[in-house]
Amino acid sequence: MRSDSSLRRFLHGLPGVDQVGCEARAAGLGTRSIKTTSKAWAIDLAIRMVDLTTLEGQDTHGKVRALASKAMRPDPADPTCPATAAVCVYPDMVATAKQTLGDSGVHVAAVATAFPSGRAAMDIKLADTRDAVEAGADEIDMVIDRGAFLSGRYLDVHDEIAQVREACARPDGTSAHLKVIFETGELQTYDNVRRASWLAMMAGGHFIKTSTGKVQPAATLPVTLIMLEAVRDFRDQTGQMVGVKPAGGIKTTKDAIKYLVMVNEICGEDWLDPDWFRFGASTLLNDLLMQRTKMTTGRYSGPDYFTLD
What we know:
12 helices; TIM Barrel; eight-stranded parallel β-sheet
């Protein structure tokens, strides 16, 4: 049984983050170049890692069906183009996405727990999660209570994550995968990012995720580096792998490849897989498709060639 004091001792006993060193290393990894054949492989891998996302108040069932169709066949003119990892929607759109995706293998991720603020009573957060799972969500993206975390109420945050994970259970004994969103732009320090990473993993999160995409700054290379170090060290200590999902602000192929280089350098090849690394994005896919077409045909197709998300 964990207590607030034991969690505090552990989390504040983690090594402090060297801000200058972290940012310098992230910048250095971002300058790495890769050869043409490796770039083609990286683009296809990045496409397979995309959680194609629409999280707007104006979302319609038609928009979600179109997005799900695009996730299955990102480039209808090229059957060799891989599908994305998932479609990420609000809970009330899960059934629509699930129906469209069928048995394609593309997952449905649903945001829950009063996304993006996380400001709701616990029973509402759990009902939100259960409704999404019942509707067919394969993955749940929850937001932590940043107010509780920043106030040092670590046990509250830990128990909330653990309860949401329990709410991800299905009647058949399986469970939706849980991604825990920190909203790193609100966590104030790199040390807090490291602490939140460990707290979420200790509470049973399957993935740790940077951001909702609604707050700036969202995903950054230094923050993702800290989270990658955390999942690497967590596996070293426990034998358990946890995934990482940067989300928000990743828009270009060049950006995506920087993240993939970092994954390889920090965690190794095991994490270069959609089961362990994802991009939360709405506009990244189109740039990946344009670069892919350029590599296969020798010319850019232009942004109007692909559907807008």
